[in-house]
Amino acid sequence: MGGGEGERGLVDTLSKKDFTTDQEVRWCPGCGDYAILSAVQGFLPELGVEPHKTVFVSGIGCSGRFTYYVDTYGVHGIHGRAPAIATGIATARPDLSVWVVTGDGDGLSIGGNHLIHALRRNVNIKILMFNNQIYGLTKGQYSPTSEEGKVTKSTPFGSVDHPFNPIAVALGAEATFVARTIDNDRQHLTEVLRQAAAHRGTAFVEIYQNCNVFNDGAFDLLRDKPQGSRSQIRLEHGEPILFDDDMRCVAVGDNGRLIVANVDDVSPDSIVVHDVHGRPSLAFALAHLSHGPTEPTCIGVFREFGRPVYGDAMEDQMRRATERLGKGDLSGLLHSGDTWTVR
Amino acid sequence: MTKTVEEKQRVVVRFAGDSGDGMQLTGDRFTSATAVLGNDLATLPDFPAEIRAPAGTVHGVSAFQIQFAATDVTTPGDRADVLIAMNPAALKADLHTVEGGGTIILNEDAFTPRNLEKAGYAQDPRHDGTLDGYQVYEVPMTSLTILATEGVGIGKKEAERAKNMFALGLLSWMYGRPTDVTLQWLEGKFGGRHEILDANVAAFKAGYNFGETTELFAHSYKVEAAPAEPGTYRNIAGATALAWGLVAAADRSGLPLFYASYPITPASELLHELARHKSFGVRTLQAEDEIAAAGIALGAAFAGHLGVTGTSGPGMDLKAEMLGLAVIMELPMVVVDVQRAGPSTGMPTKTEQGDLLLSMFGRHGESPMPIVAAATPGDCFDAAIEAVRLAVTYRTPVILLSDTFLSNSSEPWRVPEVDSLPAVDPRFERAREDGGRFLPYERDERLARPWAVPGTPGLVHRIGGLEREDLTGNISYEADNHERMTHLRRAKVEGIARDIPPLEVDDPGGDAELLVLGWGSTLGTIRAATRRVREEGRSVAAAHLRHLHPFPANIGEVLSRYPKVLIPEMNLGQLALLIRARYLVDARTYSKVQGLPIFADELEHEILRALDE
Ligand code: SF4
């Protein structure tokens, strides 16, 4: 009972202030990052993990500054490499709570390789990818999530690149936790963070984030209050996928493809019931339901399942080797194999 | 028949055959028997670049060279006294490595028209004068092996594969190597598979007896044990020594070792070796790429582990960015560069010392890193410990240079007493419960900053790649601060010069005009060449650099004592460039970039030329 009380006591005493540094926050006024920061700082006390047992790792881009504002241990790394650095930290120290903050350019372009391999390994880290569909810090070039035809400084005639679907990328890398949320929906964002933190292994959370300077309004369809909620398809485990005040739904159409339909136009049996532990095909289909945030789009947890956590497996191998061979004896190692003695 | 035994001071033997002939194993076993006998020795394997080159072709030849002697040995030998050629391709590829008048032992059975053609011989070299001047012995090794293994119960194909043991047996007889070492090893290796064990033992004994009983060989040779300091010895290859040095440094310092690496020739050996030592608490991680390997090691270092990454030249190019981050974060980390011939993919299995300037300058901005270089296979152990000491003491990434030659070659190594090995205190910053302000960039007398690891109360801080404000570590773009931090980072690394031994000069007469200055794996060659020059009655001084950055504090003074300075390097003069720039000395370069070590006679020649100029 005593231990439990101690834990409870900690949760009660930690507050948002404990996770807030004295550094002046320097994003552009109105940037979606402020809301995310505030939501994260507000949520962390609830985890009951003290700031000194928490590490935030970020890359380069506007999202990279995040580390400086959260009063925990932090590494502001280099472009795209945060998942690699975090892999080192989390694998070396399973006792720490390790978070990665990245962006669409950082995580999916220059750091794409590290991202997919962290997901594949299932390192115990929580990855928050702020997707604003633009390069903000470098002042407005198209990103790997920008839509085709996007006119930016580097694409004056429109982008000819096909964008990544970050959720599909994460699912393809067999991430064990894949979710999407929106910067200004504090309640939904906090709930997704809660589930991500509770997950053992890598959690991938895409956060639609408005860059009001270089890509304002990219997510307005989903984000505008109160209208936006009408286009958010909220995924709830075990619930039929209904949205727009339950007037519309996700249903199985002809050929087994998922479609967005009016509830009145489809048979109740064809309405999809969400299952986060289900087959990857369902999560993939939901990820591809819209072509981007300009159509009704799914938010919430797409998929969650259990797989051995990378650090656990490594610790396990070391434990078994030590059981079998005894704790490493340096002198024994140096003398192993053929030796001879000169007197 | 009684045979005479002739005494020899030093011998170089080269085993050459097809990749599938097991020449590395044969050489390795011959080395073990030689080591146990107490000869000093040095070895050099020479693998083909292709994993599975077409059998019987020159590209597929794999060789192993060993020099052993009754006196000290510093190199695997320039040229072979004895070549064992298991097929025509091996003869073709390696004939040039044999000393004039040297001995060539051929596997007669392999000299078929088809094999001669595959090796690119238009005529049989045994009969066209190619081998004039050599002592040639033709031994039907394949058929004798098949004969010897009759009744063992294996097929002809498998029996044939034991012919390398026949060759080993013959050479073991020839040089009086103990047989029990090999027989015990075979027992251990094939104990579970009786027919294979029996076949190999039979082939080995047949080779030995062939030497003893046939009239082909008139005498055998004897090489006395070399004088050596008392102690327990073993044979060790550079890759193993380096890996063990890291394990030892971690063990002695109480730091868990975290090695992250991406497969690359020839550095993969380190990953393979370290991956075996989990019971030492060694974590190994095969990363998705070179950049990640460095990032993972750096993350582990931030978390309080001994973070190490290893690679070869191409990987160094990729890691540069992460090394810059380690420089500005001022965290301990070791990056091992097992140099190979470049540029680009270059010659992955061949040696070179081409990465010195890359190590010095291969990062953007002012980004100084200490550089330590190993000089011999056994020295890789000590060099690794030294790299760790500097990294941990100075909170800095350190480059540890080895090369393909050091990594693959081996020498007898006196096993150190564990208690005699240096231990580095990580001096982790202690928890602060008093609420006092922690300054992550406050420096000690060596200008090293605190190593404050996550999990420690009261030390929460954030570091990264942006310029840090002095003391606080906050982001700063302030002009004076950047200048101060740039100078501090340099002063910290330069200060290491006060913490390393002075450069020792080997100048027995004290009257030499010429200093041969070397670094890294050329040490053996320099020792052999200077010895020869001195045996000819000439004076020459030699000095060898372990620390390439910073240089030992007395190097300027040493250089000023000699009117002539010669720097032999397996590059186009990289150390010479640094020495000339820093000390305004007219150092002359002796350069060799053939993917091979510099030979003692080449350097001897060059020293004499420099002396006579
Ligand atoms: S550029 Fe865009 S993403 Fe960056 S801080 Fe400004 S608004 Fe935010």
Task: Summarize the model shown.
Chain A is built from twelve helices and twelve strands. Chain A is an alpha/beta fold. Chain B has 20 helices and 23 strands.
How would you portray this structure in words?
The complex is a heterodimer of chains A (343) and B (613). Chain A has 343 residues and is of the alpha/beta class. Chain A has a domain at 5-233: Thiamin diphosphate (ThDP)-binding fold, Pyr/PP domains (Rossmann fold, 3-Layer(aba) Sandwich), CATH 3.40.50. Chain A has twelve helices and twelve strands. Chain A has helices spanning 2-13, 32-47, 66-69, 82-92, 104-110, 112-121, 166-172, 186-198, 220-223, 280-287, 310-325, 330-334, and strands spanning 54-58, 73-76, 97-103, 125-131, 177-182, 203-208, 232-235, 242-243, 248-252, 258-262, 297-304, 339-342. Chain A is globular. Chain A starts with a helix and ends with a strand. Residues 1-8 of chain A have low confidence and may be disordered. Chain B has 613 residues and is an alpha/beta fold. Chain B contains 20 helices and 23 strands. Chain B has a seven-stranded mixed sheet, with helices on both faces. Chains A and B meet through β1, β2, α4, α6 and α11 of A and α1, β9, α9, α11 and α12 of B. Residues 27-28, 31, 33, 62, 132, 136, 211-214 of chain A line the site of iron/sulfur cluster (SF4).
